[in-house]
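ok here's Cofactor-independent phosphoglycerate mutase, seq below lol
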Amino acid sequence: MQLTLVVPELVWPEPDDRETFDAFACPGLNTLIARSRLQRRAPQSFEATLGDTFGLGGSVPWAAFRILGESSAPTAAGADPCWLCADPVHLRLHQEKLILADASSLDISLDEAQEITAELNRQFADVGTFHVATAERWYLQLAGETDLGRFDVPPLSIVAGRKLDRQLPETPEARHLRQLLNEVQMVLYGQPANERREVAGQATINSLWLWGAGVRPAANGTSATSSATSSAGNFAGVWSEDVLTCGLGRAYGIPTQPPPDDLAALLSQAAAGSRQLLVLDTLQRPVQYEDADAYASELASLDRRWFAPLQKALASGKVKQLRLEASTAYAAVAWESSRSEQWQLWRRPRPLAATAQALAKGEG
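and the structure came out like this:
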């Protein structure tokens, strides 16, 4: 089996925080990457790393792909609509900067989501239709041709839990989007659901993160993005709980399912000699919200169930080739390895803190 493993935020983003790094136990990962070839690119989002994995380039319609991964996908009205992710968020001002909390930290109920989007649909029927896929993931289907489908806003993964200078770019292309968002925020301010949340001591849903605009790709893999078909088609299976990853897999007709518990289970289920894509995103939220304890716990679990067994499976030849992709604060990095490299015993593992410091300095 050849495995591409994508782990967003694999390396804790504070290289000089030795006390925190000393609490991270990942001997399997340290050995695995010490005996791998490192490639690095400029820092980029998790979504962009996924796009590279599927051979996508340029402006990617993330919303349209993500919808394909939803278990209850919104039903489009009309052919080839333009979709946006319209994810609910809470913004608060701190020291002249905005801090954004995404829906994963807001505990939004499905009833609240449906109540709020129903009001948005009453107020903005001329703009399009808001849809609720889950309490945390909302979409906007634009009505007809509009400049709202042409703008460049970073994915939610880049901004969740972080400080922003401003919510939207000050570009001419985003002018209509800024106007819409200002009006949406005014509607949200007076929502009964938000008033109830405030009384209950919960953070309100006071804005949306609008991103990933684009036209839905074909679901059968024949015309989603022709330049990517050969690259994506090389995967025999996609294993992930991430909705966007599942949507990308389904767009190209690749069997998609949740990850098994560990490498042994994956090896027992995947066809021998096949090329598989596995996405494990459990480190992403702890890094976004600077939760070192949660990161340490998830990293230890990944090391026990995946990294250490992968190192041994490579050395024994059960896994022929591994490409470990990670979007990090330092760079977009990839470690490639095969059986012969894992037997280079003179390449000694080093602590994760040393890896982080080397990456921060632009080294390997």
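fwiw Residues 219-227 have pLDDT under 50 and may be disordered. kinda neat tbh
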